[in-house]
């Protein structure tokens, strides 16, 4: 049976690696991001692996992007939604601009709530569906210079844990992935790159959540670094 997976923010970083590791014969990957050339290049790699690819391009702060993502998801009978896209800013609170505060909350939290709101009724109709929310250790505890990033990820955690209580008995699984620092564009300024989690390794572990078991399910996982400087 074909499986359709939507991964937000799959033009690069963890989302891209997830798209590649999940791209298998008989599957449809709905990829998303803003950068056209990255998405076009990814499409070739996905199709080479035998999966179909549908690109939805657009900023998550735009209603039109959310509507297009929801429509593509429903049209292709979505099975798995991976809320992965996020923005990051390391900046002390009072130095943040007002628009940066709004964008962080909009991209990292509100847009994900809107996507779930659009796609959940489809999952409920089928009594089946998996939502994976990519979170961060900063979504579990405070982190210096990350007030708004951390707050947006805490909001996602609260939303996700509460929604689980409403939908688990209706066949919908929601899994939260709490990640330590990973070597992507988000952390390009760090000097300890070789000590960070490799996104392709994280993607391999996360892809194992995309299977189904009758009597057990994974509510959350934490992916930690093996190496510290
Ligand atoms: N890297 C880390 O150290 C780390 C640690 C813990 C958790 N995480 C989490 O892991 C997930 C993936 O992060 P990453 O490190 O892979 O980040 P990344 O390499 O910066 O990639 C972010 C992705 O999100 C998309 N995106 C960002 N803002 C967007 C917007 N306004 N509208 C549409 N798309 C947008 C980007 O698309 P375009 O580039 O095409 O715009 C890109 O595909 C995030 O949820 C992040 O919070 C990362």
Care to describe what's here?
The chain has helices at residues 13-22, 36-48, 63-75, 98-126, 147-167, 199-207, and strands spanning 3-7, 27-33, 52-57, 80-83, 129-136, 172-179, 220-223. It is α/β, with parallel strands linked by helices. The chain has one domain: NAD(P)-binding Rossmann-like Domain (Rossmann fold, 3-Layer(aba) Sandwich). The longest helix is centred in the middle third of the chain and has 29 residues, at 98-126. It is globular, with a radius of gyration of 17 Å. The relative contact order is 0.14. The chain binds NADP nicotinamide-adenine-dinucleotide phosphate (NAP).
CATH homologous superfamily title? NAD(P)-binding Rossmann-like Domain
Give average pLDDT, whole number.
97
Shape: globular
Bound molecules: NADP nicotinamide-adenine-dinucleotide phosphate
Query: What pattern of helices and strands is seen along the backbone?
Result: EHEHEHEHEHEHE
CATH topology: Rossmann fold
């Amino acid at each position: 049976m074909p499986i359709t997976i939507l991964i937000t923010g799959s033009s690069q970083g963890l989302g891209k690696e997830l798209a590649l590791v999940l791209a298998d014969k008989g599957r449809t990957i709905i990829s998303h991001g803003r950068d056209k050339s990255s998405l076009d290049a990814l499409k070739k790699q996905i199709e080479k692996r035998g999966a179909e690819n549908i690109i939805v391009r657009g900023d998550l702060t735009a209603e039109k992007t959310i509507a297009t993502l929801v429509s593509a998801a429903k049209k292709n009978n979505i099975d798995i939604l991976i809320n992965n896209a996020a923005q990051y800013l390391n900046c002390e609170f009072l130095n943040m601009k007002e628009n940066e505060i709004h964008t962080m909350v909009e991209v990292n939290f509100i847009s994900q709530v809107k996507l779930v709101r659009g796609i959940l009724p489809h999952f409920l109709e089928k009594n089946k569906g998996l939502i994976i929310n990519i979170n961060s250790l900063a979504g579990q505890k405070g982190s210096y210079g990350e007030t708004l990033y951390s707050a947006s990820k805490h909001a996602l955690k609260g939303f996700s844990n509460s929604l689980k209580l409403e939908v688990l008995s209706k066949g919908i699984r929601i899994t939260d992935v709490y990640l330590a620092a990973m070597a992507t564009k988000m952390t390009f300024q760090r000097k300890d790159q070789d000590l960070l989690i490799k996104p392709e390794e994280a993607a391999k572990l996360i892809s194992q959540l995309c299977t189904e078991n009758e009597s057990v399910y994974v509510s959350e996982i934490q992916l930690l670094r093996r190496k510290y400087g």
